[in-house]
Amino acid sequence: MSVDLERIDRTLVIRMNRPHKRNAIDAEMTAGLDRALNDFEDDPDLWVAVLTGTDTVFSAGTDLAAGSGAPTERGGPYGVVRRERRKPLIAAVEGRALGGGMEIVLACDLVVAAHNSSFGLPEVSRGVIATCGGLFRARRALPLNIAKELLLTGEPLTADRAWRLGFVNQLADPGEVVDTAVELAARICRNAPVSVRESLTALEQLNSADDAEAWRVTEQAMAATLSSDDTKEGIAAFLERREPRWTGK
Description:
Elements: E1 3-8, E2 11-16, H1 27-42, E3 48-52, E4 57-59, E5 89-93, E6 96-98, H2 100-107, E7 110-114, E8 118-120, H3 134-141, H4 144-153, E9 157-158, H5 159-164, E10 170-172, H6 177-189, H7 193-207, H8 211-226, H9 229-240
Parallel strand pairs: 2-3, 3-5, 4-6, 5-7, 6-8, 7-10
Antiparallel strand pairs: 1-2, 8-9
Helix pairs in contact: 2-3, 3-4
């Protein structure tokens, strides 16, 4: 299985486990993440979830060779990024969170990261764009110019810099990210679960009031990009492990 689960008291740890593909998300992983988050939301004995990868990588995003599978009914792409949640979800990041992996982090409520981790939206280097919330969630979670830097250069943001910018809640030593995230989850679980859920729901409703328009604009940009020759070239170059030859068409 590409998704492993562990219950620790009232916390569910969800681990993406496809290290030979840098935890790139295929249809099986999308289905596994969707099932895990559905079970988390529906189980009254689970109050907080931690979403993590393996010791060397969080996720490289969509598996460009196999595809990430169809969006799920409750979670949307990856089973995560368009999910309406009422319980806190903590991203525990070790290694790189790139592309769709970064967009999954942006869909979470809190972020714990190892000092050696990094975050990036490298889609422009492959002739595509961030289609799973990155275009608008990055500018909510980060200063606008930093969001532009990520989206326009495709270059990564280090965990230390992300912490200084307020994107990362807690830094941890390599190998201690999940333990740190579980401790953060335990701090949340000391509080009244109804109060936590209602506070989270209210914050999310206020923060995401313009999501319908944001998704519409994303879909418009995606349609324009996917019809370009550069998209075909970018994906081909990535799969062939060569430098792309852009034409601007």
